[in-house]
Amino acid sequence: MTVKEQCENVKRMSGTDVRKCMKCGKCSGRCPAFHEMDIKPHQFVSLLAQGRIEELLKSEAIWSCLSCMACVERCPRAVAPAAVIEAVRDTVIRAQGANGMKAEDIPPMVDELIPQQLLMSAYRKYNK
Amino acid sequence: MKICYYPGCTLKTKSQALDQTARLAALALGVEMEEIENWQCCGAVYPMARDEIATKLSAVRALDYAKHNGGRLLTLCSACHNVIKRTNEDMRSDGEICSRANNYLQLEESYRGETEVLHYLEMLKTVVGFDNIAQKVVKPLNRKVGAYYGCLLLRPSGVMAFDNPENPTIIEDFIRALGGTPVIYPFRNECCGAYVGLKNPDLPKKQSERILRSAKEKGAEEVITACPLCLYNLNEKGSGILPVKYFTELLAEALGVKS
Amino acid sequence: MQRIGVFICWCGSNIAATVDVERVADAVKKDQGVVYSATYQYMCSENGQQLIKNAIKEHSLTGIVVGSCSPRMHEATFRKTAEAAGLNSYMVEIANIREHCSWIHKDREEATEKAIILVRTAIAKVNLNAPLSAGESPVIKRALVIGGGIAGIQAALDIAEAGFEVDIVEKNATIGGRMAQIDKTFPTLDCSACILTPKMVDCAQNEKIDILSYSEVEEVKGFVGNFSVKIKRKARFVDEKKCTGCKLCMEKCPSKKGLDEFNMKLNKRPAIYIPFAQAIPNVAVIDPEQCIKLKTGKCGLCQKVCGAGAIDYTQKDEYIERGYGAIVVATGFKPIELNAFNEFGYSENQDVITSLELERIMNAAGPTNGVLLRPSDGEHPKVITFIQCVGSRDTSGCGKPYCSKICCMYTAKHAMLIREKYPDTEVHVFYIDVRTPGKNYDEFFRRAVEQYGVDYIKGMVGKVYNENGKLMVQGSNLIDNEQVLIESDLVVLAAAIEPEPSVRKIATLLTASIDTNNFLTESHAKLRPVESPTAGVYLAGVCQGPKDIPETVSQASACAAKVIGLLVKDKLKTNPCVASANETMCNGCSQCASVCPYGAITYVEKELRVDGKTELRRIASVNPAVCQGCGACTVTCPSGAMDLKGFSSKQIMSEVEEICKR
Fold this sequence. Notes:
The structure holds 3 protein chains of 3 kinds.
Chain A: H1 3-14, H2 26-30, H3 41-49, H4 53-57, H5 70-74, H6 81-94, H7 116-126
Helix pairs in contact in A: 1-6, 3-6
Chain B: E1 2-6, H1 16-28, E2 32-35, H2 57-67, E3 72-75, H3 78-93, H4 95-105, E4 116-119, H5 120-128, H6 130-136, E5 144-147, H7 157-160, H8 170-177, E6 181-183, H9 202-217, E7 222-225, H10 228-237, E8 244-246, H11 247-255
Helix pairs in contact in B: 1-11, 2-3, 3-4, 5-6, 6-8, 9-10
Chain C: E1 4-9, H1 13-16, H2 21-27, E2 34-40, H3 46-58, E3 63-68, H4 71-84, E4 92-96, H5 98-102, H6 108-128, E5 136-138, E6 142-146, H7 150-161, E7 165-169, E8 184-185, E9 190-191, H8 192-205, E10 209-212, E11 215-223, E12 226-233, H9 248-252, E13 258-259, E14 268-269, E15 272-273, E16 285-286, H10 292-296, H11 301-305, E17 318-324, E18 326-329, E19 333-335, E20 352-354, H12 355-362, E21 383-390, H13 407-421, E22 426-431, H14 441-450, E23 455-458, E24 461-467, E25 470-477, E26 482-488, E27 490-495, E28 497-499, H15 503-510, E29 537-539, H16 549-567, E30 571-573, E31 579-581, H17 591-595, E32 601-610, E33 613-622, H18 632-636, E34 642-644, H19 649-660
Helix pairs in contact in C: 2-6, 3-4, 6-19, 7-8, 7-16, 13-14
């Protein structure tokens, strides 16, 4: 896939129109995981609009997004940064061998109380 | 009155308290929660990518079952509610996802989002009524309780249509009905850190402590939630700032049905 | 049999690039009635018009069809051209082959085919056209201004200056509007009241101006030059002629818990009150929801203390009806409700306020006598954070899609005034863009930054929350790619503005069009910016779109010029395309009268010869001076007796048939 095709694919997967962004930064102003991210939520939208998908695919931030939807909820332009981040992450984990979390990584992390919901969420978010 | 009920995996294992107290309380309020047949894990997170179809099918199956069995599907776990409600909206309004999902499932009759997804709290508010609950309270809470909404019940509000996403009131009304005093604090709709703990344990810790600190500062003596993952993070990563319980535990307590 | 000329315009390349104009002219050459057909580069030019005039004379044309732009552009031009050549102007039809054809099609073949059909449709109509002549109607030399803010005040003063009588209908107890609430004005920082109140006083003293305060427009009938308007004068329970404005009643009133609307509900006022010191008229009003006497029958203290005997608890709403030649709508604006923006904590935190609330706090006549104190505890705020674009430029459904236009400037003003008066205060402004087009505007904003040291942060706030008595403002700093958290004492929201909601009712009464944001629509965005598409109705101020005071005043004066231009005329030409009833077919059923929006239809008893006998029949009669030619009656009439001159059923059907031939 060319870079351009990859961009179009991520845009399609995210279902969001990045051109609607007016660069107000409200998404990043609200994000609870902001300080954990190398590339910030508003930059996901901006970089995708510029076609700079390669930088996004290398980003560590895709593993930090909480999918809490605060950015989506508050965007004044109905853009969904969280959906862009998820589309980038899906693109990464769908590539063979690029899983963000392997099944064997999980048991050492599990404590007695950890709910299935947490494991399932993480596995779905980080793995395909 | 009977209503189709989708418990979800966690409520059968680590969060039996949520399931059991909910059932007991519902019975005391005249609602029988009928567990649907052959339900499967909802997937715990709603897959946002528009080309994700297979990961939505178990939710559609549950919805289709409910469609033929009363037309309503009761949920309790916030995550299940979020996944099932958002999937239902896709089936209702996204023609492409709807037709692709139906192609997979080959149901006798296509499913098009006909079922009404109802969270237990919504059921208490609209079906039972908080006034009726208040009348059945035998042991008023008489304490200050902070509602923790988290993300999944509220957002995205356009689809969830649960409450005002920045200034929700339903759990506060619920606390009032049980004879408690709701404590409104600014972090009640902030994320607890969710599943990211497996990658980055610091984030749930930071978030959970912040949430509980905020609740405590505004005077809460305890915090309630509808989400097993939130409960886990707040209790295990929140440095014990405040005790956290399921909202149904308080309901059962107030109604005097706690086992 | 008509002798029709067809004139196809190229409009440079606007039409000719997409439509084969020669083919169009050629295709209709042999059509019924057509004796001449030609094309020209610009038919609206002097030369083009001359071509038409010559053809009319040389070929003895009885009707013409011009295939060109929209009739909204040049119908009037070509009608005058025809008249100059001795042809009745209603024998001219326009086939719109530009907006309806060349501009919206790409395929030349398709566009040409469509242009031919459109021209043929017009030819079919001209074949059935008959000469019409316009009548005349008198002009009532009095204007109505709806809304007594700065827009309405300026319009009324200018119209009165030209010698015409003007009534200002203001729904509040005083004129002055929003400008009266504002403390200082940008970009000069002069006191708003100091420049507004002289104009208010001028209105009160001007013999030509009648201020109908505490009144609302209830019904509008008629048309340009001849409006008849019913006005409700709401019961204020105080005799306007007797009240001296001494305010003794305000002091003695025991019910002091009303929220002071003028001060944005930041303080309390008595049940009987005068909104502010310079109110015009300077007459008290009683809030019936709050007055103990009106609610319970007990009290009556104000009546006892009133030396002028002005208090009248029995007052009822009164209705008056007046005639006007022109109407100016100047209904103004309000800040939006902030219920959908709880992320900024407006409803939970007293110290999160709107900019208009800050205006009152900063004003010497405001709730804190002009001292900057925060509402929660009356302390001086040391750190103040402004958030711009709250609800503006919002397409998510929570706010308004447009830029409110005034917020950048007033926020810079607030920041500057605070830094000037309280230099130890730290001021931050979150902005998305700073928009300051206008004379001396950007210079003004830059002064806030460069001279007053206001901290402008490029980014939006995500959340405002209360922690340990401080307002924590969490937002983006996009320039530094940081998330910042500012511990503030006061947060000021630049809330979007929206048209005053009562404008919807006014628009309906006036049949004036309104857009999806409730702004009244102007007739042409560039060339007729102060005229409503409804003749005789003019728009001033924010009811037409967001604008600041200088723009509002300019627009109000422009409205006044338009109104004066109308009122100086003794008579107006009426539209000859009016309805009339065929007497032998009308059965007097009254359905037409019930749908007529102008009240133009009455009934007469008339003797008619039917089948050799004389019968007395009830027949519809249309007043041609009142009829606006809307056609509602013609489609309602069950017997087909009602028809519209120039747009008869036969003419319309012949057009439809022509289109359907293909």
